[in-house]
Amino acid sequence: MQEDQRSNGYSYTALYHNSVVPNLFSDVDGRYRGLDQHIHQADHPQYTVFSIWDTYRATHPLYTLLEEARTTDFIHAFLRHHKQGGELPMWELAGNETYCMIGYNSVSVIADAYLKGIRDFDAKKALEAMIAISNQDKFGKVPYRKYGFIPAEEEGESVSKTLEYAYDDWCIAQMAKAMGKEDIYAEYLRRAQSYKNLYDPETRFMRAKNRNRWAKPFDPSEVNFNYTEANAWQYSFYVPQDVEGWKELLGGEGALAAFLDELFTANSETSGREQADITGLIGQYAHGNEPSHHMAYLYNYDGAPWKTQARVWES
Fold first, then answer.
1. Model-level pTM?
2. Where residue 183 falls among pLDDT bands split at 50, 70, 90?
C-alpha cells in the first residue's frame, strides 16, 4: 500500500511539473504584446513559454489528451506568432523568439493535434506556415534541402539538425496527406528520408559528414558541436518517423534491439566538451535529457517489449 501511494505521489508530482508551462500571456481583456512589439487583441488566450524542442516529444502529445481546448489555444498562439514574425515559434518567451535549440518542431505539435481530430484552427494557414518555416534560408536549411543533409563544415550541430528536420518534414507530410495535398505529401515524405544520408553502415551511427566524406576522427561517446546536447550514441536513435526503414539499415529484425542493448550497457564515460545537460547515464542512455527519452520504448518495435519494461522500470 505504501509503495502504491508513493508511486501515485510521484505520478501527480510529475503531472504538476508537466503543467507549469506554457503560461497565459494575454491580459483579462485579451490584449497582449506580440512578436512585433505591438499590442494585439486575441480571440483565443495568448500563451507564452513554448520551449518546443523540450516539449514536442511528450508534453504536447499529453496535452492533446488532457487539454484539448488549450491545445487549440496553443496552436492559435503559434499562428499569431507566424503572422507577426513570418515564422512558427522555435523557443518563444514572453512574446519574443529566442531561437534557442533546433528544429522546426512546432510543426509536430500542429500535426499531432490535427491528426487526433483537434481542428478548431485554420488548417490551410497552418500548413502554409509549416511549409514556410521548413523552407527558410537559415539554420542549415539551404544545404539540407540541396544535399539531403547538412555538411558539418557549413553549420554547427549538423547531425542533430538534419535528423530533427527529417522528422519535422515527416510531420508536414502527414498533415498534408490528411488534408488531401498529395503533392506536398510526396515531397515531404521524400525529405523525411534524409536521415539515411548520415547513417554510416560500418559503425551504425549517425555521423557528421563533410561534403563528400565522413568527418574524422570519430568517437561515438564524444560530445562535440556536431550534435545538440548529445553525442553520436544519443542522437543515432532518433528516427521516429521511419523505425522500420532504419531497422533495415541496421540489419533487419533483432538488430535494433541488439543496438539498444549496446547503448544501455556501454561505458558511461563521455569524451569531448563538457555538457551539463547529459545526466542520468545508464550506459550511454542519458535519462536527464530529451534526446534519450524515447529510446527504451524502441524495443517494442523490434520484438522485445519485455526489455522496454525492464529499462523503463530501471530508469
1. 0.95
2. very high
